[in-house]
Amino acid sequence: MSRITRRSFLAGIGVTVAGLAVTACGGDKTIAPSKPVSDDMESQLNYYSWGDYEDPGDLDAYRNKFGVRLQVDSFGSNEEMIAKLAAARGTSGYDVVVPTGVYIPQMVEHGLLDELDHSRIPNLKNLEERFFNPPWNPNSRHAACKNWGTTGYMYQKSLTDKTPTSWKDFIDLARGPAKGKVSVVEDPWEVVSIAMGSMNIDPNTTNAKDLAAARNILVNQLAPTIQGYNSSITSIVSGGAYTLLQAWNGDARLALMNESEPDKWGFVYPLPTANLFTDNFAIVRGTQHPAAAYAFINHMLDPEVSFTELQYIGYQTGIKGMVEKAKAADLPFPELLFPSDEIVDRLVVATVDSATQERTEILNQMQARSAR
């Protein structure tokens, strides 16, 4: 339960890792059959993903089912992965990669991804419509949803007699009963979205006045209350140092599963909105193993495989029928796996835009101001 999740690892290292050498995270863990299952199936697949982001049993099942030698390498940020593919100009050797949705238009524009042949991925039909047809990847043209999640906050119920519902409530708790015991994630967009939400402003705004107002709230009001910037919260909740923690829903669930008294905590999907992130399977332009790549994506979108992925990763996969499977399996804290349609419909996708650098500067200024 205390392992660092993909979201935590990404935020903790920031974007400065671009250009670092790729390190092997997986590799062959079983001896694959000596021959692929069909004449058109290649004998090799090179997969580039986040560290510890797939159930090893599902990878072994693919190896054994299709007779493919699967090599798994890991990256630490979208920027690192994109830089690797761009520098190689179609000769990276990778076949399938796992970009976050907001980066897919950029990758398509620069010719890094192949368009998907849907006839070779029949399990695409299993995706929920909102994840099959997102605005940044219409009709899953260049990628298929791997999993998704959102952001909210955990709070000790003893802090208040009321049930908090918004980012404004988060700031009020931080400046009041939770002062000095507050944690936020180490991610510029996510932290700035707290202030934008409290003002009911689009968190993707690039308006200079909006950003200045957010800076004032975060640096002068919120920063003095913060004890830590913790993207990985799964092992710190039980320690007692924090009573209010911004968190991704899957990480909050892992923390509660590790908590001896989970009932003393509440979790809020805050109004008016928060981030909807997705990670996706995509095929690299220039792949040398297209049949193996399509078989892999189709395998991972199978509902049974997807359910084991959901349990291992701790985040929803976008595949239909997962709620029913979770109920049948009596998975703990299902509300943190499955936000309601009402909640999902109000979420927004974070953008990489002209305000990205300023958001980073705001976070850096907050950290300098915080009582740590």
Automatic annotation (TrEMBL):
Q: Where in the cell is it found?
A: Periplasm
Which GO CC terms are listed, alphabetically?
periplasmic space
Q: Which GO terms describe its molecular function?
A: polyamine binding
Q: Which PROSITE patterns does the protein's record reference?
A: PROKAR_LIPOPROTEIN, TAT
- Sorted alphabetically, which SUPFAM superfamilies does this protein's record hold? Periplasmic binding protein-like II
Pfam families given in the database record? SBP_bac_8 (PF13416)
GO annotations under biological process?
polyamine transport
Primary site of residence: periplasm
Per its UniProt entry, which superkingdom is the organism in? Bacteria
Enumerate the UniProt keywords alphabetically: Periplasm, Signal, Transport
Q: Which PANTHER family match?
A: SPERMIDINE/PUTRESCINE-BINDING PERIPLASMIC PROTEIN, SPERMIDINE_PUTRESCINE-BINDING PERIPLASMIC PROTEIN
**What is the recorded name of this protein?**
Spermidine/putrescine ABC transporter substrate binding protein
Q: What organism is this sequence from? A: Gordonia otitidis (strain DSM 44809 / CCUG 52243 / JCM 12355 / NBRC 100426 / IFM 10032)
Q: What is the lineage of its organism?
A: Bacteria, Bacillati, Actinomycetota, Actinomycetes, Mycobacteriales
